[in-house]
Amino acid sequence: MTRFCTLALFLTMQAVYAAKNVAQTKTPASQSPSISVSASLQMDKAAAGPRPWAVVTVKNIGKRDVSLRTDMVDYHVHVEDENGERPKTSYHRSVRGEFQPGDKDLPGGGIVDTIPPGKSQVAKFDLVRFYDVKVPGKYAVYIEVQDNLSHTWVRTNTVQFTME
Q1: How far is CA 116 from the centre of its chain?
Q2: pTM score, whole prediction
Q3: Residues contacting residue 17 through CB under 8 Å, at least 6 positions apart
Q4: What is the pLDDT of residues 42-63, one digit of tens each?
Q5: Which of 141, 109, 116, 129 is nearest to 58 (CA)?
Q6: Nearest of 155, 132, 153 to residue 83 by alpha carbon
């Protein structure tokens, strides 16, 4: 019986300690994003030659400057077809740190762009660099942009294009 009480006391103390640590490291849920994001495409149909490009507009809707790194750390590009996410290129896997055998690490330390309050910035992404979109069909694209002030990822609208 003494062993049981000691074990129960120990587990209770562990649970209280863990809950205290989680509560201290949690970010406030009430903090809203300081950016708004939207996506568009340069063209909604592409033949075998032209490459599809996604255009992302990031607007600072907060009261402080927003910084975004240009080396893809603060952007996550997503391309899906009717079967789900398309296969990523070695470049995209390297950017995301999702290496496969044969992938090469990319040099880090991108330039930081600053967006003043009320201003916008446009970024363009060559979707062929990120995903295998050579197969004819319909694709959906969205981008997540990291808001470094609110520590959240803000998702754009989803746009669609067709590869012919």
Answers
A1: 21
A2: 0.74
A3: none
A4: 776 666 567 899 999 999 999 9
A5: 116
A6: 132
Domain limits, the chain: 35-163
Tell me the C-alpha distance between 38 and 67, whole Å.
Answer: 17
Q: Can you tell me the distance from the alpha carbon of 139 to that of 129, in angstroms, rounded to the nearest whole number?
A: 15
CATH 2.60.40.2970 describes domain 35-163: yes
Question: Token digits for 108?
Answer: 């880090």
As given in the structure block, the two tokens for residue 4 are 């049981």
Q: How many CB atoms lie within 10 A of CB 88?
A: 20
Q: How far is CA 148 from CA 18, 62, 67, in A?
A: 27, 12, 7
The tokens describing 26, both together, are 């949690």
Residue count of the chain: 164
How many Cα atoms within 13 Å fall on the side-chain side of residue 55? 8
